[in-house]
Amino acid sequence: xxxDRKPVMVQVTRKTVHxxxxxxxxxxxxxxxxxxxxxxxxxxxxxxxxxxxxxHGPERxxxxxxxxxxxxxxxxxLSPGDWVGIRGPFGNGFDIIPSxxxxxxxxGCGMAPLAPLVERLDPNLxxxxxxxxxxxxxYPQRFAVKRHFTTDDGSLGHRGFVTDLLAAEIRRRKDxxxxxxxxxxxxxxxxxxxxxxxxxxxxxxxxxxxLERYMRCGFxxxxxxxxxxxxxxxxxxxxxxxxxxxxxxxxxxxLLKSGQPVALSEYVSWRCQ
Length: 273
Fold this sequence. Notes:
Layout: E1 3-11, E2 14-19, E3 22-27, E4 38-43, E5 47-52, E6 55-56, E7 61-66, H1 70-76, E8 83-90, E9 102-107, H2 111-118, E10 126-131, E11 148-151, E12 158-159, H3 162-175, E13 183-187, H4 190-202, E14 207-210, E15 226-227, E16 230-231, H5 232-235, E17 238-240, H6 241-246, E18 253-255, E19 261-263, H7 264-271
Parallel strand pairs: 9-10, 9-13, 10-11, 11-12, 13-14
Antiparallel strand pairs: 1-8, 2-3, 3-7, 4-5, 4-8, 6-7, 14-17, 15-16, 18-19
């Protein structure tokens, strides 16, 4: 089922609290979906925001929400039986490569759009997940595949960056003459994704990343989510290496709600208000 222009009201049927900052809301509804695409979620009287689908089944889907600003905090307070409006899904998802030689690199809530992708990839993939602390690791028991963890404080796994482990694995494969990655998928803070992209470029490895920008419409009319010459809601939100090479605004600038271009750090601060 696709709802592209007008919100369709649906009930929350289940709510999972992952930690004080993250919840997943479930809806008993069949929806056409490819990992990486998103829906627009409307809270009447509050606002409408884009969210990826983090769980997907034949008759149910879920969205994972991080408490950031006014909208997300209101969404976190929803309970089974409450109503929200949805539109979508929109955008282009990940191109799924049928190979065991792929890597998935998640940072923080970037795990949400990558989770359905992981469940469709070869189980021999190389999987890295980073977060501030172990308490912010999403879906700790969800996946059958092995996950390598990094945390800022060292409370779980490697203390440092996800790119530390990715770079080490790339070197290991090269030193041991093993097949190199056919694709690296990444989602998380834009600085992290840019570091993954730069690392992949240095080693001739293809990658795909999922970008986040402020969105109003979801289908390319308003122009609020432009990044360089790409409209994130229709050309993305998933972009590949060829596209990223030409996107000079990647990891540099974004547009505020007013349309004013600002440094990415200022945009991130504004989105958390």
